[in-house]
Amino acid sequence: MLKLEPNKYPIDQVLVEIGNDFEERECLLIKAQTGAGKTTRLPPYLLERTKGKILVLEPRRLAAKLSAARCAQILEEKVGQTVGHHIRMDKVTSDETRLLFITEGLFLSYLKESSSLEEYSTIIIDEFHERNIQTDLALALARKVQQTSRPDLKIVVMSATLDTERLETYLDGPKVYDVPGRVFPIEIEYHPPQEFGGRRGKEHWEANAARAISNLAQDQRCPKNILVFLSGMGAIRSLEQSLSGKLPANIEVLPLHSTLPKSEQDKVFKGDKRKIILSTNIAETSLTIPNITGVVDLGNERRASFAPWSGMPLLQLKSISKASATQRAGRAGRVQESVVYRLYTEGEHFHFEDFTPPEIKRVELSHSVLDLLELGHHPDNIDWFEAPEEKNLQSALKLLETLNAVKNGKMTELGRFIAKLPLHPRHAAMLFKCPNELLPDTLLAACILSEGGILGRAAHFAEDDNESCDLLIQLDLAKAFFHNEKKLSDYSLSYLDNKKAKRVTELYKMIAPKLKAGQIPKVKTRIDFSFALLKGFPDRVAAKRKATKGRKSFQSYNFCLGRGGKLGRATALTSSSPDYIIVLDALEDPKANAAIGTTIQMASKITKEDLISSANQFVNVVKENNFNEKKGTISIGTITKYGKLSIKEDSAPPVIPQGETLISLIKENWPWPFENEEELTIYNRRVTILDEAKVEHNCPLFSGEMFELFLESCIDSDTTMEEVKSKGLRKLIYGQLSAPDIYTLDNDAPEVIKLSNQKQFKVHYEEHRPCIYARVQDLYSVANHPTIAQNNLALTIKLLSPADRVTQVVNELPSFWKASWEMVRKELKSRYPKHHWPIDPVSAPPIRILKKTKS
User: Fold this and answer.
1) 344: Cβ–Cβ under 8 A, 6 or more apart, which residues?
2) Residue 375 above 80 pLDDT?
3) For the ranges 136-140, 472-476, 598-602, 822-826, the one whose mean pLDDT is highest
4) Which of 69, 71, 57, 159 is nearest to 117 (CA)?
5) What own/partner pairs with CB < 8 Å and gap ≥ 24 does 843-847 have?
6) How far is CA 356 from the centre of its chain?
7) Cis peptide before 193 (omega within 30 of 0)
8) CA dist., res. 651 & res. 588, Å (int)
């Protein structure tokens, strides 16, 4: 029987009430502030109220292990008896286990084993506010099981900060508990950098944080441990160095993050020495650290996302949300009155987001989509608490289709293979149908990629390092680490991250039996990974950019899907700078120039011959005619492309085109070989006018397919470009017309019209309505308005002044003479007194004007 010390934690006061509702309701919502005891008190208590097993989902491995250990301690047992834990590569359970703490990422594997979770009566989702992608997936899928095959399944959602209103709607009105947290009050103070004599600016954050910590260590309100929230492991290391030797001997500085070995983590929770704990946001909610009386909050975090267009990962420094700030402050106030230093202004806090955007809105979704498809669910058919962005879903599906893991919305053989492995789809695809002799090395390479490499953050390579693949170096290191060999150079070993190397070897040992890969091989002759890597990264091929004056462009590359990047210090390819590479790891800066906005951190050389022989969907052979317009010659060739990259060109000697080749050239380069297509445009306009005026004719309209037929009719198999050009476009057009058609065209849509006074004018068809340009003197003795198309269309007359400027637009000449001429005549006479301006222009003889008018 569970024995809990009464009222030790705030949640103890409502345990019985929660237990009663637990037996009656299908969903419970527990909003319990930090330190309320929800994670370690409620699950073992609920175990007493159910006959089934309880599965507790934690967002972090460390939280799952420590929570299980604490619950086992409450039951006066060891982990593995009633209480167990299961995290990646570490499972401690037995047949007695009824309360199991697991990481959220493993929940899908439990569903794959049993779609209705028959073994479990209750699912508890802890720290829901962290909103990892696995959190949202777990809630959506648990809810689906509850609403279909398991209406008896209990769902308990717990968190310190919750948007309870929306969750209540989603869970159809669950019973909600709001449990207070901290026992003692805390004072929150805003301390911008200048208050401690510091300077503003990101580059000064270490010195500012060190001053704040030193001040807080001397603050009488903070006699015990101090918890400092930093953006990541790099920031922890930097600040740890800055604090070295600057604090009293009775204070020790300890790091805390998820990759620390257990022995290092235990130092945070044990010992009487006063501590300053430098932590990532893992300490926000997942862990309860004893004796915290002071918190220093820098107000930022490293937030993972990705660029949907390129699929490249992004890791950006962002301000935390107000909810996170509340969580961080809530780590104090557990043992006595405490104080919180926020190293930002109250105004900055006011502009923080209310809640951190959930991962499902910002991270790459390909593995999650594949998991859903394996479970028989399309992402579009899931009742999400908050649906992913459509562009992110499409990006994930596109990647899976690119890898050939999904086709027409369904999993392929490769997709089913990938879904069985605890690897990103890219890394798992490398192993599909891998030859047996290459499998151990390829699997080890996939595990290294899965962990983001095994080199420390400070690793970089000398300019004389000449490697063809970053993975080869890391493979050697991983093999040497596993076999405890000391044959590698001190230079290489100095950059080895032992913790990452250990995780890689553990991951290898977990996957190898499934693939019958054997153990990690010893260091030996290196193998060529090109084809294996290309299976996982077919869309990450890049070509070296040609050098430009004044720039080191030999280290810059163009990606096969567009955009570009540059080799970073972490890659060993900077010296060899291969012509073509497969980019295995990179970071994209969305604010940087698209040509160099991606920093390539890990890559492998590949030859253009290997790219061509891969014959994947990115390889495309394009026929291209290289045409010399001036010489009138053509060289027919092919370009082999990989995506947008041209990787091979073949061309024949230039020849003078004839026949069909000449026709194709003219179509592609029209109006070549003529200077322009004006004569064809005017011809087509004349034919259109005949159609609009309903004049009977058989003149073809040379556009679209008829234009192509026109060219084919004009050019025989031995016709040359010079012959076509010498004939001229008008002659070629008229050569396709019969004599009656020519007569109709020239008579009813004439190029030149003769008026009753015998003067001739060019008809302009290029304008909306056919027109002529004429000086007013040229129209003396003309009584009727000029027409074409069998008198069905009146021409527009644009009257010119003696200076050849348009002064009037006339659409009906008799009306102009009668109504407007008198006024126009007065104006013209005043401006041009030497010219003859008769009162009655119709009876006046035409005047011979020597100066040429507009034609």
Assistant:
1) 190, 192, 298, 299
2) yes
3) 136-140
4) 57
5) 843/781, 844/780, 844/781, 845/780, 845/781, 846/757, 846/758, 846/759, 846/777, 846/778, 846/779, 846/780, 846/781, 847/777, 847/778, 847/780
6) 20
7) no
8) 37
Give the separation between CA 542 and CA 98, rounded to whole angstroms.
52
All structural domains of the chain: 10-179 (3.40.50.300), 186-356 (3.40.50.300), 678-748 (no CATH), 752-831 (no CATH)
Enter the tokens of residue 644: 């947008």
Three state DSSP letters for 481-531: HHCCCCCCCHHHHHCECHHHHHHHHHHHHHHHHHHCCCCCCCCCCCCCCHH
For residue 458, is pLDDT > 70? no
Could you give the CA distance from residue 425 to residue 538 in angstroms, rounded to a whole number? 12
Alpha helix stretches (DSSP H) within 615-675: 659-669
Q: In sequence order, what are the beta bridge partners of 635?
A: 626
Number of neighbours of residue 89 by Cβ within 10 angstroms: 13
Q: What gap in Å lies between CA 824 and CA 838, rounded to an integer? A: 11
For tokens 């007065």, name the residue: 826
Per-residue pLDDT at 36: 82
Cα–Cα distance, 130 to 360 (Å, whole number): 11
Pairing of strands 796-800, 771-775: parallel
Task: Please report which helix (H) or strand (E) contains residue 251, including its range.
Answer: strand 251-256
| pLDDT value at 735 more than 80 | yes
Q: Which residues contact 818 (CB under 8 A, 6 or more apart)?
A: none
Cα–Cα distance measured from residue 453 to residue 501, given in angstroms and rounded to the nearest whole number: 8
Residues of 706-725 as b/e, b for ≥16 C-beta within 10 angstroms? Answer: ebeebbeebbeeebebeebe
Q: In what order do the strands lie in the sheet with 225-229?
A: 186-190, 338-342, 292-297, 225-229, 274-279, 251-256
Q: In the structure encoding, which two tokens stand for residue 298, read together?
A: 């820098």
The sign one gets for the Cα dihedral 822, 828, 829, 834 is negative
pLDDT tens profile 268-313: 888 888 999 999 887 776 667 889 999 999 999 988 777 654 565 6
Question: Interior CA angle at 282 toward 276 and 283, to 5°?
Answer: 45
Could you tell me which residues come within 8 angstroms of residue 534 by beta carbon, excluding any fewer than 6 positions away? 541, 582, 606, 610, 611, 614, 616
| Contacts (Cβ under 8 Å, ≥6 apart) of 509 | 519
Contact 314, 587 (CB under 8 A): yes
CA distance 277 to 261: 16
What letter does residue 853 receive in the DSSP assignment?
P
3-state DSSP assignment of residue 748: helix
8 Å CB contact between 508 and 485: no
Identify the H or E element spanning 588: strand 580-588
The CA distance from 547 to 565, in Å, is 14
pTM score = 0.70
* pLDDT level of residue 483 (50, 70, 90 thresholds): confident
Please give the Cα distance from 626 to 637 (Å, whole number): 7
Hey, is 811 helix, strand or coil?
Answer: coil
> What phi, psi does 64 have (nearest 5°)?
-60, -45
Q: What is the DSSP string of 790-802?
A: TTTEEPEEEEE-T
Dihedral (CA of 57, 59, 61, 65) sign: negative
The tokens describing 543, both together, are 């070509």
CA pair distance 579, 622, nearest whole angstrom = 21
CA-derived radius of gyration, the chain: 40
DSSP-derived pairing of the beta strands 598-605 and 580-588: antiparallel
pLDDT higher than 60, residue 461: no
